[in-house]
Write a structure and sequence with these properties.
Elements lengths: L5 H17 L3 H21 L14 H13 L5 H21 L4 H8 L16 H8 L7 H16 L3 H5 L6 E2 L5 E5 L5 E5 L2 H13 L23 H18 L10 H14 L4 H8 L4 H26 L6 H4 L1 H10 L1
Antiparallel strand pairs: 1-2, 2-3
Helix pairs in contact: 1-4, 3-4, 4-5, 7-9, 7-11, 11-13, 12-13
Length: 338
Amino acid sequence: MKHETLSYYLQKFFLEYLPGERGVSTNTIASYSDCFSLLLMFFEEELLVKPERLTIEHLSKENIVSFLSWLEKDRKCCVSTRNVRLGALHSFFRYMQYKDVAHIDQWNQALSIKAKKCEEPDIAYMSVTGIKILLEQPDQRTSQGLRDLAMMTCMYETGARVQEVCDLTRSRLHLEYPMTVRILGKGRKERIVPISKAAGSILLSYIARANLDNPSRWEYPLFPNRNGHKMTRSGVSYMLEKYLVQIRKSNPGLVPKNFTCHCIRHSRAMHLLQEGVNLVYIRDILGHVHVETTELYAKADSRLKRAAMEASYPNVLPQVEAEWVKDTKLLSWLKALS
């Protein structure tokens, strides 16, 4: 058929399948779009195939593997980013299994490409004292300062992702006891997260000053930028970095290296864990699908505790030479085995 070209299927994938059948978020679609933009760049720069000349046959397993290697070596992407791009491609290949049966073997081969194993990164988070000092930085006497305080308070109390907070409106807040925030997360899944009275008080003060309690403004962005539009993730990052710079001047060791907006979410999870909150509840608060994802915080906390304990041993316990070390015959026998 004349329509069965790669460009035809890509348009159907992005314009119909992802938003319609899958119902994925605009952020996911944007991420997938970035992946295919890089793929087109790879074909043009490395294989000298212009986008308008790309065909279905070009998406072979060999070419996809080369593309993933190019991401790591030439684009200097980390393994986790490489795996994210592979996930986007896999989604398209699964779509093509049903839309292009004539090339089913090609799609199956492409789907056989495995995600690369990578070390679990250290979870950067701030102590309770650090978060307290962070929330003391904004100048509450100004409208912008009160907005920043309310936003960071909401980020910490709910453990929400940056985009989830950017997407909030007044209608998603229930500020009568018990106070809650209704968050629209990944996959358009909603979760209701309780917040403290102190956090609710800050939000109420901010809403009153920003005139957002008027029912006609309940669907406006809860945390707008200076132009009244919804804040972007880069805008939130800029705001946070401004306050981190202030903290580093007086408390240089308080802020972990490479602390980002997402690390506020990490901080909330770690503090809940350290307070003895069940992992299942933390999973529900963070909006994780599987509790195994939440267990990363427990593993990180265990490593920190072990490191602290081991560091204290040399100063407390006497050094005792093991008996088997004195046995030269045993040592000789063990060395012979190797």
